From TrEMBL:
Keyword set includes DNA-binding: yes
InterPro entries in the cross-refs: TR_Rrf2-type_CS, Tscrpt_reg_Rrf2, WH-like_DNA-bd_sf, WH_DNA-bd_sf
Gene3D superfamilies for the chain: Winged helix-like DNA-binding domain superfamily/Winged helix DNA-binding domain
Natural source organism: Sandaracinus amylolyticus
Protein name (Swiss-Prot/TrEMBL): Iron-sulfur cluster regulator IscR
Keywords annotated in UniProt: DNA-binding
Molecular function GO labels: DNA binding; DNA-binding transcription factor activity
Keyword DNA-binding appears in the UniProt entry: yes
Spans through the membrane: none
Example of a GO cellular component annotation carried by this entry: cytosol
Length: 153
């Protein structure tokens, strides 16, 4: 299993909303600037996260994306599955290469890979966005207030 940039950026974006904006609506440009993620890529990521029910969107001048659940209810596994698909190290059942070779060794190894996949998935599911926020505070990172006000002189 290899986590792509899409999965990593998705976790960082949701963490950003929870940490810097306490889960409230945050504009993509703010997240993109703080996290150094291309805004267009973030838009695609947020569409997948919205379909998965992890974020909601709000239109208007105070709009943006906000968490659809409390940070304690959003697990890293939820984000990874929404963006990457199932968390697995074994080959899919319809993989042609899986049909070749000794049936006994294939069964034994696939069972081992399935067990490893479950353990990896459990590790992802053991960490919540709230855990990441607590870790950020413990490390001394400062929460940045959202830039909601525009002053015109």
């Amino acid at each position: 299993m290899k986590l792509s940039n899409k999965g990593r950026y998705g976790v960082r974006a949701i963490f950003d909303i929870a940490f810097h904006n306490e889960g409230r609506a945050t504009q993509i440009k703010e997240i993109a600037e703080r996290q150094a993620i291309p805004p267009r890529f973030l838009e695609q990521i947020f569409q997948d996260l919205k379909r998965a029910g992890l974020v909601a969107s709000r239109r208007g001048p105070r709009g943006g994306y906000q968490l659809a659940k409390a940070p304690a209810e959003i697990r890293l596994g939820d984000i990874v599955r929404a963006l990457e698909g199932p968390i697995a190290v074994s080959a899919p059942k319809d993989d042609a290469s899986a049909q070749e070779g000794d049936a006994t060794s294939r069964q034994v190894t696939e069972e081992a890979f399935a067990e490893v996949s479950k353990r990896i998935e459990a590790c992802f599911d053991d960490v919540t966005i709230e855990d990441l926020c607590e870790r950020g505070e413990a490390l001394g990172y400062r929460r940045r207030p959202p830039s909601r006000y525009v002053y015109v002189i």
